Amino acid sequence: MIEVDLHGLSVTESLATLVAKYNALVPSAHKELLLVHGYGSSGKGGVLKSQIRNFLQEAGVRFCTEQDGFSCNRGQTLVLLGASALSAGQGLEGKMLEFCSPAKTKEKIFSKFHKSGVKVVQEAFSALVKKSLLKESWKGKHKVYERSC
Predict the structure, then answer these.
(1) How far apart are CA 13 and CA 39, in angstroms?
(2) In the chain, how long is the greatest CA-to-CA distance?
(3) In Å, how far are 13, 50, 67, 71, 76 from 64, measured between CA atoms?
């Protein structure tokens, strides 16, 4: 099992590291990736822990935690590698589609999701437009994007 320590990284850096390591391991014989993200100092679990687990869940990646009987502590997540690669914007696309009903300007979309990182937001936005899941229209003199389904 490969272990990746994410201590000291921001959420954006951690997700980028997770995606890169996951994608590098997909074609290999490795089937598990242990993420060490820490528990957090709030007493409720840290932001990094919750953001990573939310990302994995929204991306459809199977993972195990201490609650699943896996022998790890609350500051670790065991990721079960799938057959296909991940994109850092994968989990963001669904949130973006939800946000774009009703229509929003590109600036509002990017402002809402800026904490995910500009590159990640741009990738997710471009993917949605390319897949025709976000349709472009004009509202007065502003170009807006709205969920098309």
Answers:
(1) 17
(2) 57
(3) 22, 13, 8, 10, 9
Q: Which residues pair with 144 in a beta bridge?
A: 105, 137
- Secondary structure class of 120 (helix, strand, coil): helix
Q: Which bin fits 43, alpha (ψ -120 to 50), beta or left (φ > 0)?
A: left
Query: Where does residue 107 rank: exposed (0-12), middle (13-18), buried (19+ CB within 10 A)?
Result: exposed
13: tokens are: 């850096």
C-alpha–C-alpha distance, residues 127 and 73, integer Å: 36
Instruction: Residue 17: name the closest of 25, 114, 80 by CA.
Output: 25
- Per-residue pLDDT reduced to its tens digit, 74-119: 889 999 998 888 887 777 888 899 999 999 999 999 999 887 778 8
Around Cβ 80, how many Cβ atoms within 10 Å? 12
Number of other CB atoms surrounding residue 128 within 10 Å? 23
Overall pTM surpassing 0.85 (yes/no): no
